[in-house]
Amino acid sequence: MKKGIFSCMLLGMISWTHAADITGTWRTVDDKTGYVRAHIQIEKQKDDTYVGKIIKDFPAPGETVLTQCRNCPAPFTNKPIIGLTILQKLKADPNNPNNYIGGEVLDPRGGKIYHGKARLNASGNRLTLRGYLGISLIGRSQTWIRQE
Fold it and tell me: Model-level pTM?
């Protein structure tokens, strides 16, 4: 009986220490305006990295609809916005559960690619994504909210 209880407790602790899953659909919220900008579908790849693609885009009030990534570097130049990969190479941080590192983030409106890292909150419904150049201190964060 004691072995069974101990085994259940051990399994619970092991699952608690692993990073939560970030796959699914996320609603991005612009950190400057507070407007919802896009819905992003995040999928886990065979190499255990994550990629995120735009599945729906929302222009800000008064902004023209963005249909192509006009200012983006190759290979993203003039690619359609819907289906565009804006998050790639993100992987779970083996030393910090619910943290993700090593990613690249494309800003389709500005046309720049940034280093990226992310942190999933304890409830698993908010992903704080940080894009930066050089060091993380110099960058911007956005909160993504999991779609139900």
Answer: 0.83
**pLDDT computed for residue 16 by the predictor:** 42
Domain membership of residue 74 as a residue range: 20-146
Q: Is 74 within a domain?
A: yes
Instruction: Name residue, tokens 């280093």.
Output: 115
Query: Within a domain: residue 1?
Result: no
Residue 77 pLDDT more than 70? Answer: yes
19 DSSP 8-state letter: P
Residues in the chain: 148
At 148, the amino acid letter reads E
Cα separation, 46 vs 80, whole angstroms: 25
Give CA 62 to chain center in angstroms. Answer: 26
Residue with the bigger pLDDT between 90 and 139: it is 90
Quick one: tokens of 1?
């009986």
CA-based max dimension of the chain: 66
Write the pLDDT tens digit of every residue in 116-138: 999 999 999 999 999 999 877 78
Q: What is the CATH number of the domain that holds 68?
A: 2.40.128.520
